[in-house]
Amino acid sequence: MDLIPFDTLVAGAATVFQPEILLWTLIGVLVGFVFGASPGLTATTGVAIATPLTFGAGFDVAMALLLGIYSAGYFAGSIPAILINTPGAPGNAATALDGYRLARAGKADLAISLAVIASVIGGLISIAILMVAAPNLAAFALEFTSVEYFALGLFGLICVAAVSGGSLVKGILGATIGMFLGTMGIDEVGGMPRFTLGLPELQGGVPLIPTLIAFFAVAEMLLQASAEQGPADLPPQQRHPVLRLPGLALQHSWLLLKSSIIGTFIGILPGTGPTIAAWIAYGQSQRREAESSGEEYAASRGIIAAESANNAVTGGALVPLLTLGIPGDTVTAVLIGALLIQGIDPGPFFIFEHGDLFAQILTILLVAALMTLVLGLGARRILPKILTIPPRILLPIIAVLCAAGAFSIGHAPFEVGLIAVLGIAGYCLARFGFPMAPVVIGLVLGPIIEVNLRNGLAANAMDLSVFVTRPISAFLLAAILATLAWSAWRARKP
Amino acid sequence: MKADRLAGIAGTGAGIVLAAAASQLETLAGQPTLSARFFPYLLSCILIFGGLLLALKPGSLPLATVIEKLLRRRGLAFAAVFLIYALTFRYADFRLGTWAFVLAAMWILGSRSRLELTLLPLAISATTYLLFRYGFTVLLPVWT
Predict the structure, then answer these.
(1) Strand residue runs (E) in chain B
(2) 3-state per-residue secondary structure call for A295-351
(3) Which of B92, B141, B97 shows the shortest CA–CA distance to B121?
(4) Residue B112 phi/psi, 5° resolution?
(5) Torsion angle (degrees, nearest 10) of CA A419, A435, A85, A255
(6) Which of A246, A259, B87, B135 could form a disulfide with A309 if both were Cys (CB 3.0 to 4.6 A apart)?
(7) Can you tell me the distance from the alpha carbon of A160 to that of A273, in angstroms, rounded to the nearest whole number?
(8) Which of B54, B75, B83 sits opposite A170 (nearest CB)?
(9) Which of A195-204, A279-288, A383-392, A481-490 holds the top average pLDDT?
(10) Which whole number is the average pLDDT over A414-443?
């Protein structure tokens, strides 16, 4: 942290403790609870819908709202996972295994309490790692040229295509669709228009935030609208005293730390996200001796591992965003749009030029985690009521917010039509089993990959060997090959 | 037929169309780097070969299942109403358009309570308008 003046950090952090910012963080946390706990809706959907609303707001208000949703939304997905065996988001799928097992045994209260504690501790550990790692990585990234950025962008894209669920081919095709959308508009290198379909609105390219709303919110909303689902069946719960939770956390402290570090590290890898983090942490939590210690003990380990890793991704995923301008997961892909609205181009200079804003981000994450703890534990018997909001009321509200939000970015009705058209396209892709994450990450990373490939070659007299002779680029390209080989091997396994 | 087979054929077709469109792109002569056509050509190759791979080695999901889900009346009707709402957004008064959309959407999604259908569309329309107008200072389209 000595890379940033201490007084800059203190001044930045202090601004968060104004009543207005605290209120927006609280609103963000509450919205995050609603989006996270509603099956099918995710923190990404919430952040995508809320981002356009920050257009007229300052940086601190915008980050308070969005990071509140981010932080609370990742936890809240565990509520439907535990109560009705339906993960609020893919990152909570591992929690459903043991959480639902406890709920069926009448211990849903304990399961939700453990999820809150694990999520908050995971989040706090990842904030600490973000605080230490980000400035150092940013300093390291100052040495990066177009060659490294090309390799890093490609690495992120391959990672998300490989781990986002479904087949690798579908992941790559999804990413290609996203990259194609990224090529529309004026070519950044040559200055000539590409695929603008004669529409002046597309000269500046496909707008990022409406596209994110389309693929994450509208497509998801249409999936929910066509789903045949009845009202949630809530199991009866036994009460579990909150005072016993610190003891439980201490009992599993090593597991908490280990899983949080796994989650943070997976989050740092560009393009990955909470799903893989939660499953890896869950996998390493499964021990035979744990099973022999009783069902409750073993299930508690599973919930703690999955949820701490899931929420630790939040801080980890911000590391590549704030140091390299490359999203760590889907929410940070949306946050790029939010930063651009604020006139901030995320990259290696961000932390050094805006140390105070970096401190604000850290402090807001900390405050949001503490609010999640208090509200999550305090309202753990009320939160399940979110599951009872019927889709016939929730979906029209989301649709209206999507449309009004898309309009509010540039007062452009074109963008409202765009979210409907792209959302329906995304819905069709989802029905055919194409994951949405690669499409969106492809849209974000496509231009980065193309521009840096072309600039890298221009700077090196069209010498392709530069991509393998520079060590970081060579390492990343080798990692890409290894990821592809691992995915192909995994696909062949019966 | 498997769903992936159709998706693969569509992907290959899209790749061919993209390659044809890329060949029509204007480029600057004498650029010291790859032309503006290079990346779209690369993407079209990925679409063509990826699509072929998917068509030749499809997953187990049957096309009939996907079509059945895509053609579910409720989903189709909701998508159609949302599309109309979005495409007429610029012409309609937000308060009126939103009221009509929410009413139709709630009906499609199964709401039959008169009280619910009377109050909620009004409340959602008014609350959203006021939230954007005074909370986020965004002027939504209105007939003045």
Answers:
(1) none
(2) HHHHHHHHHHHHHHHHHHHHHHHHHHHHHHCCCCCHHHHHHHHHHHHCCCCCCCCHH
(3) B97
(4) -130, -5
(5) -120
(6) A259
(7) 8
(8) B54
(9) A195-204
(10) 91
Q: Which two tokens stand for residue A275?
A: 């799903």
What residue type is B38 in one-letter code?
F
Minimal Cβ distance to B28: which of A192, A407, A417: A192
Query: Is the CA virtual torsion A366, A370, A376, A379 positive or negative?
Result: negative
Q: A83 falls in which pLDDT band (50, 70, 90)?
A: confident
* Partner B contacted by A179 (CB < 8 A): yes
- The answer to whether residues B22 and B38 touch, using CB atoms and an 8 Å cutoff, is no
For residue A229, name the pLDDT band (cuts at 50, 70, 90): low
pLDDT tens for residues A308-338? Answer: 999 998 888 888 888 888 887 888 888 988 9
Q: Which 8-state DSSP code applies to residue A201?
A: G
Residue that the structure tokens 């939700």 belong to: A112
Residue B91: DSSP 8-state:
T
User: Looking at the predicted complex, does its ipTM rise above 0.85?
Assistant: yes
Sequence-ordered list of residues with C-beta below 8 angstroms from that of A379, at least 6 positions apart, any chain: none
Instruction: Provide the 3-class DSSP secondary structure of residue A124.
Output: helix
CA A129/CA A265 separation, integer angstroms: 9
Contact of A416 with chain B, judged by CB distance below 8 Å, is answered with yes
Hey, is A194 helix, strand or coil? Answer: strand
Contact between A335 and A66 (Cβ < 8 Å): yes
- Long-range pairs of A281-288 with CB within 8 A, sequence gap ≥ 24: A281/A94, A281/A305, A281/A306, A281/A308, A281/A309, A282/A94, A282/A97, A282/A306, A282/A309, A284/A258, A284/A259, A285/A255, A285/A259
Percent of chain A whose predicted confidence (pLDDT) is above 70: 93
- pLDDT bin (cut points 50, 70, 90) of residue A62 is very high
pLDDT of residue B24: 92
The residue to which tokens 């003046």 are assigned: A5
The residues that bridge with A186 in the sheet, in sequence order, are A193
Instruction: Return residues 51-110 of B near A (CB < 8 Å).
Output: 51, 53-54, 59, 61, 66, 69-70, 72, 74-76, 78-79, 82-83, 85-87, 89-90, 94, 98, 101-102, 105-106, 108-110
Query: Helix (H) and strand (E) counts for chain A?
Result: 24, 2
Q: Which of A154-163, A280-289, A461-470, B129-138 has the highest mean pLDDT?
A: A461-470
Contact B83 A424 (CB under 8 A): yes
- Per-residue pLDDT, averaged over A148-174, amounts to 82
Query: Which residues, including other chains, have CB under 8 Å from residue A83's CB and lie 6 or more apart?
Result: A100, A103, A108, A232, A234, A235, A384, A387
Report the alpha-carbon distance of residue A87 to residue A83 in Å, rounded.
9
A residues 36-95 closer than 8 Å to B (CB): 53, 55-57
- What mean pLDDT is reported for chain A? 86
Low-confidence ranges of chain B (pLDDT < 70): none
pTM of the model: 0.81
From the list A146, A213, A180, the residue with the least C-alpha distance to A423 is: A213
Using CB atoms, pick whichever of A176, A417, A450 lies closest to residue B86: A417
pLDDT digits (tens, 9 = 90+) for A120-129: 999 999 999 9
Q: Quote the pLDDT of residue A245.
A: 82
Q: What is the dihedral of CA B79, B85, B90, B93, to 10 degrees?
A: -170
- What span, in angstroms and rounded, lies between the C-alpha atoms of A260 and A123? 8
At residue B18, the 3 state secondary structure works out as helix
